[in-house]
Design brief:
Radius of gyration: 17 Å
CATH superfamily of the largest domain: 2,3-Dihydroxybiphenyl 1,2-Dioxygenase, domain 1
Shape: elongated
Structural class: alpha+beta
Oligomer: single chain
Order of helices and strands: HEEEEHEEE
CATH class of the largest domain: Alpha Beta
Distance between the termini: 29 Å
Largest sheet: 4 strands, mixed
CATH architecture of the largest domain: Roll
Strand content: 25-35%
Number of domains: 2
Helix content: 10-25%
């Protein structure tokens, strides 16, 4: 959770608006750590929750999953992410009439920020 929070809050600029720190039960110890949170960036929100040892999937995390956010200016977000030192961000390109800024979060999940554009399909950002 700590690594994911650094990525989403420090790197991407999300703000934590809610969190859950368990008092302790059979699934989560009472260690003062955040186990669930809601993060917001503008009108977008995402919730993160740690797996319990019993609920963790057997395969690699992130396989076959992507989260896509539609936004006003994906290229501005890309530049902001880069200025914050996010290295998990690939060069933006155009697909389906959208600038797409692809990232991979610390657990291997693909996260895209997209915004409409008139740029030709398959264009890539040159200053990337």
């Amino acid at each position: 959770m700590e690594v994911s929070l650094r990525f989403y809050v420090d790197g991407l600029g999300f703000t934590m608006t809610r969190r859950w720190i368990p008092d302790g039960d059979e699934h989560y110890p009472s260690d003062g750590r955040i186990r669930w949170c809601r993060l917001e960036l503008g009108d977008a929100a995402i919730m993160l929750q740690e797996f319990t040892p019993q609920s963790r999937p057997k395969g690699a995390l992130g396989t076959g999953v992507s989260v896509s956010f539609m936004c006003e200016d994906a290229l501005a977000l890309y530049r902001d992410f880069k200025s914050r030192g996010v290295h998990a961000c690939s060069r933006p390109s155009v697909g389906n009439g959208l600038w797409v800024v692809p990232l991979t979060d610390p657990d291997g999940y693909r996260v895209d920020f997209s915004s409409p554009t008139d740029a030709p399909e398959e264009s890539e950002l040159e200053d990337g």
